[in-house]
Design goal:
By secondary structure, the chain is mainly beta. It contains 12 helices and 47 strands. The strands form 10 sheets. It has an 18-stranded antiparallel beta sheet that branches. Strands 37, 38, 39, 40, 43, 44 and 45 form a 7-stranded mixed beta sheet that branches. Strands 10-15-16-13-14 form a 5-stranded mixed beta sheet. Helix 5 packs across helix 8 and helix 6 runs antiparallel to helix 7. The radius of gyration is 30 Å and the shape is elongated.
Length: 798
């Protein structure tokens, strides 16, 4: 764990006794507040002295303890959204304050911040936004608060493993969404090297989440690059409001009726301690530990692989000598053999994923903070979130994120009209490794490829010469070539496995290194915002700016770093104007943001919205938004050798590094056609289509939305929308190949000879970033209904 995290949490211990000293010289009023209908304890209810500054909040059990130097009589004000405000006359200190508040239909109308960066009722939000408060999260039928997102309309969730889940709205999803922002207490919690959020591996514990707001669709005009199909804002509990010590224990059962192994337990332990030491100072600390046996991937379907493209075909190891199983690794290594002049392809024997991946997943998180009120309205805070875990990520390969950790540390000054914050994200890949590279390394540890294929060819040819049927000859050949193969569980296998996952990946390729990542990338961000509305009477004005620096340091295992770590600077600024017209019936807003990345031209992103009230608490919204994203850090600098291809970035340095201007590459589909013609005995080079390597452009998107949100009969909340989006310069990857020439000592050089492309084993596959030349379109609609049944029950459907 980072020293700064330890210092932050240790400081808390020295400040606790101040509260008791203060309390001895002050008056104390206590009580309890409940929901009048359900008798449920109400937490986070504001309890303040009218006309003064003293105040507190109820805890999870509805209890409060108000400390003041005022002497009775005075008036206490009690308020919480969704309930009628209440005033209580206090005549003496011994008077108990036990109240039951009456809820009203406003409980269906929460206040949100994410839609405009300013507090407003969700009914008046100019774009689609969802909000989950602490109560709804607690009542969610899921293992943790992150699972609640899957119940919202228009949300797609990809589960790569138990702890690694990817959220998306209105667009394209996968295990790692580059078009979706996730902010925790204002901090972008994406991994600096990966450029996307690793779900809930780091961040807040279950007990410390106050609310989540999901902004569907384009949000770049306020939140910058990446907010193309959604932004998720997660807010932690304020220790001035949520006090006390809480412990949570969750036990579950997984893999019931799973043929791969028997049922196994799920363990989830968490605690949170928040304390208001005085009217000015509060702290909190919490931690959570999750332990599970993760889902196992065991798809043995045969693949016909062409660079990064592939398709499934019938076949097993027994029937296809060039078998390549989906979740079988190491069998990607294959060669063309020609015994007796008959060409055929054969692959090495691979290992099942269960022999290479540790499914004992865990997630340990610790977080805390110190909060000090400089004035009644201005607060300073120093907070930290640190998480470590093991999980599985699916990308171009199956990557084992073992002991992967991220720490985030923030200093913030906050006022209702402004904020200033600075934070850093520190990533450490730990013992993470690429599964397929590990399998190939183990295979090559006991015999190199040339020896194995040579042994196979001789054994196969000998068997055929002895009139053995081809199928039996293949079985004999494989048995002969695999005679010394390391078997899973053996000491030789374990030694080779350990050597591979502790040896960093090399830019020289699989044969030059192991399978371990060695990444310690980081991010540093500074940002601020100011609301000028108090000075400008004609229109509400909000402005903000930010600057961030990425420090990429993978020791050449992920990025091309010939001169050491890479630093990338980005900056942006935004302005939002809002105006209410016709007695607040019509509300207009216009936002604009300018962003500049070190390696790309600047981008201006506008947003125009209108909200019209058709009846009390019934509004129609219309919006036009643009969004964008710069090619991410991997799109720019990746230089990763995988079994299928070399993944490279889009910057001009790779054009010269791989000599694409002198030795062109050809599209994977055209190479496939050319190889088919060569296999038929009539090679046709005119089938080859050259692919152009070029610097990618930022991806942009235009989005139109119309929606309605309203409350009917004070009981039914309806939200419905339709959207249309059009992407330009859509960022993807193109699979290409180029022929190789090999000298007498085995050195590989690029070649322009088409004959070398006819054989996949005398060519190299590449994958680089390209922009789509045609627009990509997406459209959809959603509807949700929320009905207040009475006695605290709410029915929800979407």
């Amino acid at each position: 764990m980072r020293k700064s995290t330890i210092v932050l949490f240790s400081t808390i211990i020295f400040l606790i006794t101040c509260h008791d000293i203060y309390a001895q010289s002050a008056n104390i009023i206590s009580g309890n507040i409940k929901n009048n209908l359900t008798k449920e304890n109400l937490s986070a209810v504001s309890v303040t002295i009218k006309g003064g500054t003293a105040g507190t909040f109820t805890d999870e059990k509805g209890n409060f303890r108000l400390i003041t130097k005022n002497n009775p009589p005075f008036i206490i004000s009690i308020s919480i959204i969704g309930y009628a405000d209440t005033m209580i006359n206090v005549e003496n200190l011994s008077q108990p304050i036990n109240l039951e508040l009456d809820p009203f239909y406003g409980v269906l109308i929460p206040v949100v911040v994410g839609a405009t960066r300013l507090p407003q009722r969700i009914l008046e939000a100019p774009v689609t936004i969802e909000r989950l408060n602490a109560t709804s999260l607690r009542n969610t039928p899921g293992a943790n608060y992150y699972d609640a997102l899957g119940n919202l309309k228009g949300v797609d969730v990809t589960n790569s493993s138990y702890t690694f889940k990817t959220i998306s709205t209105r667009g394209f999803n996968g295990s790692g969404n580059l078009r979706f922002n996730q902010l925790v207490d204002g901090m972008d919690n994406s991994a600096p090297a990966l450029n996307f959020s690793v779900g809930n591996v780091i961040g807040l514990t279950d007990l410390d989440v106050d609310n989540m707001e999901l902004l569907s669709g384009a949000s770049s005009a306020l939140y910058g690059s990446g907010g193309m199909n959604g932004t998720l804002l997660i807010t932690s509990k304020d220790p001035f409001k949520y006090q006390g010590f809480s412990i949570e224990v969750k036990e579950g059962l997984m893999h019931v009726d799973d043929y791969r192994h028997g049922a196994s337990p799920l363990h989830d332990f968490a605690f949170r301690w928040g304390k208001k030491v005085s009217d000015k100072f509060a702290f909190k600390i919490g931690a959570e530990y999750i332990k599970v046996n993760d889902w196992q991937a065991d798809d043995s379907t045969d693949l016909l692989r062409n660079n990064v493209y592939s398709k499934t075909i019938p076949g097993t190891r027994a029937t296809d000598q060039n078998y390549d199983g989906v979740n079988v690794y190491g069998d990607e290594v294959s060669a063309n053999l020609t015994p007796f002049g008959i060409p055929f392809s054969v692959s090495r024997t691979g290992y099942y994923e269960k022999d290479l991946v540790n499914y004992n997943a865990y997630d340990f998180k610790i977080s805390g903070g110190l909060y000090y009120k400089l004035t009644n309205n201005t607060e300073a805070s120093l907070t930290g979130n640190w998480g470590e875990g093991s999980s599985v990520y699916t990308g171009a390969d199956r990557y084992t994120l073992k002991n992967f950790s991220i720490g985030q540390y923030k200093l913030e000054f906050k006022n209702p009209n402004w904020f200033l914050r600075a934070y850093t994200t520190q990533e450490n890949s730990g013992d993470s490794y690429a599964t397929t590279l590990t399998a190939i390394s183990i295979d090559r540890a006991w015999t190199d490829d040339a020896t194995w294929f040579g042994t196979y060819a001789v054994a196969y040819g000998t068997a055929l010469a002895g009139n053995v049927p081809p199928d039996q000859a293949q079985a004999i050949a494989r048995q002969t070539a695999d005679k010394a193969r390391y078997l899973p569980g053996s000491q030789q296998f374990n030694d080779a496995f350990h050597k591979s996952i502790t040896t960093p990946i090399s830019q020289g390729g699989v044969s030059k290194g192991g399978s371990q990542f060695a990444d310690k990338s980081s991010l540093y961000q500074f940002e601020g915002q100011y609301n000028f509305s108090q000075f400008v009477k004609v229109v509400d004005v909000l402005v903000g700016a930010d600057y961030r620096t990425y420090h990429l340091n993978s020791k050449n295992t992920i990025f091309y770093e010939p001169n050491g770590p890479i630093n990338i600077g980005e900056y942006g600024a935004y302005i939002q104007l809002q105006k209410s017209l016709i007695n607040d019936i019509l509300k207009l807003s216009a936002s604009g943001r300018y962003d500049k990345s070190e390696n790309f031209n600047g981008r201006f992103t506008p947003r125009l919205t209108a909200t019209g009230q058709v009846a009390k608490d019934n509004n129609i919204r219309i919006s036009y938004q643009q969004a964008y994203r710069f090619p991410n850090n991997q799109d720019q600098y990746i230089n990763l050798f995988t079994p299928g291809s070399v993944l490279i970035g889009c910057l001009p340095i790779f054009n010269s590094l791989y000599q694409f201007d002198q030795y062109p590459v050809y599209t994977a589909t055209s190479v496939d056609s050319f190889r088919a013609s060569a296999a038929s005995g009539n090679p046709n080079p005119t089938l080859l289509r050259q692919a152009a390597f070029g610097k990618a452009k930022p991806e942009t998107m235009e989005s139109y939305e119309v929606g309605y949100r309203g409350v009917i009969n004070k009981k039914l909340l309806i939200d419905v929308y339709y959207y249309f989006s059009k992407y330009k310069n859509f960022i993807g990857r193109e699979a290409v190949a180029r022929g190789d020439s090999i000298d007498a000592v085995g050195n590989v050089y690029p070649s322009n000879n088409p004959a070398n492309l006819a054989n996949p084993f005398t060519s190299t596959n590449y994958s680089f970033v390209v922009n789509s030349s045609t627009p990509v379109k997406a459209n959809g609609w959603g509807i949700s209904l929320e009905y207040q049944l009475g006695k605290g029950y709410i029915a929800i459907a979407n």
